[in-house]
Amino acid sequence: MLKKNFSTKISNKEIRLYTLTNSNGVKVEITNFGGKAVSIRVPDKHGIFEDIVLGYDNIGDYISGNPYFGAIIGRYANRISQGKCTIDGKEYQFVRNIGDNHLHGGTKGFNAVVWDAKQVNINGNQSLELCYIVFA
C-alpha cells in the first residue's frame, strides 16, 4: 500500500491518498478526506485497465467541488424528514440543512472530515481501516 501526501491539511490533519492493489492488478485509491474513493482501476473485456470512478484529479476539487463524490456518507445516508427522529421514546433533533430536512449528516457530515487511516492486512490481503471518533 502506498501513501501519498495529498498536499494539504484540514484541522491540522494531513490528507493522504492510499493505494491498494490486489493480485489481479485491480487498484483502488482512497483518500482519508471523507473516506473518498478517488480511483478504481479495473480491466475491460480486452484487459485494458480504466478508472471507473467519477471524481476529481486533485484534492482541492474534492474540498470545493461536489462533497459526496466517492465519499463515506454520514452520519446518515439520505434525508431525515423534519430533521428529527424518535428512538426508544426519546426525540432527537438534527440540523436542518436542506429545507426542513437533515441530509447526509448535516452541515459537516463524515464526507468532510479527515479520518484516521491505517493499513490492515486481513488474510494476506491489503485493507484500509478508517476511523473517525466524534465526541458529543
What features would you describe in this structure?
The chain has 136 residues and is mainly beta. The protein is built from 1 helix and 11 strands; from the N terminus they run βββββαββββββ. The chain has one helix at residues 59-64; strands spanning 2-10, 13-21, 27-31, 37-43, 49-51, 79-80, 84-87, 90-93, 102-103, 116-122, 125-131. The strands form 4 sheets. It has a 5-stranded antiparallel sheet with strand order 1-2-3-4-5, with no helix packed on it. Strands 6-9 form a two-stranded antiparallel ribbon. It is elongated, with a radius of gyration of 17 Å.
Question: How do the helices and strands line up, and which of them pair or pack?
Answer:
Elements (H helix, E strand, L loop, with lengths): L1 E9 L2 E9 L5 E5 L5 E7 L5 E3 L7 H6 L14 E2 L3 E4 L2 E4 L8 E2 L12 E7 L2 E7 L5
Antiparallel strand pairs: 1-2, 2-3, 3-4, 4-5, 6-9, 7-8, 10-11
